[in-house]
Design a protein that fits this description.
The chain is an alpha+beta fold and about 550 residues long. The protein contains 12 helices and 13 strands. β8 (about 390-395) and β9 form a beta hairpin.
Length: about 550
């Protein structure tokens, strides 16, 4: 066995002779592993957080893990005076394999064999042994220095000072965060009418969360720097402090190198997006001219300009982003790929309904069935179109209620547009009344037109007109038509028109009733010729022409 204790009664030559005999006996009693046998798991010797050497082969029947344990026991058994001495190296050969023994005087520490070499590292056995001796010497010097009271007292004093500074910094960070949040809240409350601060008020909770995250990040940074500094003040834990500082500087170096390396590609992406915006702005100017009527394009109608502009904008920006995407930093990383898969999955799940609504919206726009400001009848909903969106259409009905109708539902139902053909004449409204055959039709026409002319909200030009819609069994059906400018006021205008019609008929003694006969009257129900032009009918009134 390798010597692990100091024997004062033996001289150094005798110790080395005993060491050689042990090697011989071990070689005869325990054969070395054959080359074709499986290699045992490697083990690394650490001493006071410092890696010394990695054992990869078995030595005299001892696997690497046990070699590490025996080496640690021998190093720990060194007396304090031996830790400051130089580590010596003695080469040897056993069973045709070279090795180097590391020892301090007669205190044997461990052996390094050719089987411990890393094939990928490309270094010799002597170089590996020298590196292990240097690392172990540094670790032994740190252990020796740690036993000096002045070193410990200096480390404790600097650690206490660093702790005080860290606590002050943590307090200042907390106070600064609270001051910033409070100042921002006061600014919001001092400008309640400002649109910018109104948006900030809605995002107040988000601002608080961001402030808390920023404070937590600064606290962790201070704690990380404090721990790095404190560990580096003591010789035994100095490797841990060095690792923390190396990690921090390595991270900063990686980030800095990544940012510098990404500048050319990022500049290219920015230029591509800038050109895309410039091209999109030029297209926007064209559509503005088309909307104002300064440009005439076949197939491009005023009702479809906005929708066409949006579609072209989406196509332009989609092409620009597709071209710029490969130049965006980390675009080929697993994170970006994961986001792409997630968005693709979400789009697949919700695309059926969304695409149906989008296509229905395009059908509404390009069929020009309705547009903003049109007065329409959709069956159960009658009102003015306030918005034609990509997914739904909003209608303001007569009760001043906003009704939202999905475009898919709107496409599948008939649409009556009262404004499309009105042009400058205004929206056409009508009302019906049935009067018996004993009332002259000319008188009824005159009374209905007079009532319309007296009704506020109805236009005098074009002039109101009356049609006789049907000749029933017992009465004549009259329908009055007039034009109005504000379709949303249809209900109050019709109410006023109905009141004026009643006043007109009451003024001239005409009964608004549709007579039903139980039996035929004795006299024919006709209008005498002398009553054909009864007031307010004019003498030259002719039957209306279709």
């Amino acid at each position: 066995m390798i010597l692990t204790r100091r024997f004062p009664k033996f001289s150094a030559p005798f110790a080395w002779l005993l060491f050689a005999v042990c090697l011989f006996l071990a070689g005869t009693g325990a054969p070395v592993l054959a080359a074709d046998e499986a290699r045992p798991p490697e083990a690394t010797l650490h001493y006071h957080f410092r890696p010394i050497v990695t054992f990869r082969t078995t030595f005299v029947g001892t696997i690497p893990e046990h070699r590490v344990r025996r080496a640690l026991s021998r190093i720990d058994a060194l007396p304090p005076g031996a830790m400051a001495q130089a580590i010596e190296q003695t080469p040897f050969t056993i069973e045709g394999r070279r090795g180097i023994n590391l020892h301090i005087g007669e205190w044997v520490l461990f052996n390094i064999l050719e089987g411990d070499l890393d094939p990928e590292e490309k270094i010799s056995l002597d170089e590996l042994a020298q590196r292990a001796a240097d690392e172990l010497g540094t670790a032994l010097q740190a252990a020796s220095a740690q036993r000096r009271p002045m070193v410990v007292l200096t480390g404790v004093g600097l650690s206490l000072l660093a702790t005080a500074i860290a606590l002050v910094l943590l307090w200042l960070i907390r106070r600064a965060t609270a001051w910033m949040v409070g100042h921002f809240q006061q600014a919001i409350e001092a400008h309640p009418e400002s649109s910018a601060f109104r948006w900030a008020r809605h995002a107040w909770l988000l601002v608080q969360r961001i402030a808390q995250l920023l404070m937590g990040f600064l606290w962790l940074s201070v704690a990380y720097l404090w721990l790095t500094f404190v560990l580096a003040r003591f010789p035994l834990t100095e490797p841990l402090g060095d690792r923390l500082s190396d990690f921090l500087f390595g991270l900063l170096d990686t980030l800095g190198s990544g940012i510098l390396g990404a500048i050319p590609a990022l500049t290219t992406a920015v230029v591509i997006l800038f050109l895309t915006k410039a091209f999109n702005d030029a297209i926007g100017n064209f559509f503005k001219a088309a909307r104002a009527g300064r440009v005439q394009v076949p197939g491009l109608h005023p009702e479809t300009v906005n929708a066409t502009h949006r579609i072209v904008t989406i196509i332009v920006w989609g092409l620009g982003i597709a071209v710029a995407y490969p130049f965006i930093p980390m675009s080929d990383s697993d994170a970006f790929r994961g986001l792409s898969v997630m968005f693709g999955f979400m789009l697949t799940l919700g695309s059926a309904g969304i695409v149906n609504q989008l296509m229905s919206g395009l059908v509404l726009v390009y069929s020009r069935a309705l547009s903003v400001g049109d007065f329409v009848d959709l069956g159960e909903t009658v009102g003015v179109v306030s918005e034609v969106g990509a997914l739904s259409t909003k209608i303001i009905n007569m009760r001043n209620e906003e009704v939202t109708i999905p475009n898919a539902v709107l496409v599948s139902s008939p649409i009556k547009n009262y404004s499309r053909l009105a042009g400058a004449r205004g929206t056409l409204v009508s009302t019906q009344v049935t009067i018996g055959y004993d009332t002259p039709w000319r008188q009824v026409h005159a009374m209905l037109i007079a009532a319309a002319e007296q009704t506020p909200g109805l236009r005098a030009i074009p002039k109101p007109f009356v049609y006789q819609r049907g000749l029933g069994d017992w009465y004549v059906e009259y329908e009055l038509f007039a034009h109005m400018d504000k379709p949303l006021e249809r209900v109050p205008v019709l109410s006023a028109l109905h009141a004026n019609i009643q006043d007109q008929f009451n003024t001239y003694g005409v009964q608004i009733m549709s007579p039903h006969f139980v039996m035929q009257p004795g006299n024919n129900v006709v209008v005498p010729r002398e009553h054909w032009h009864a007031p307010p009918a004019a003498a030259d009134v002719a039957p209306p022409q279709a």
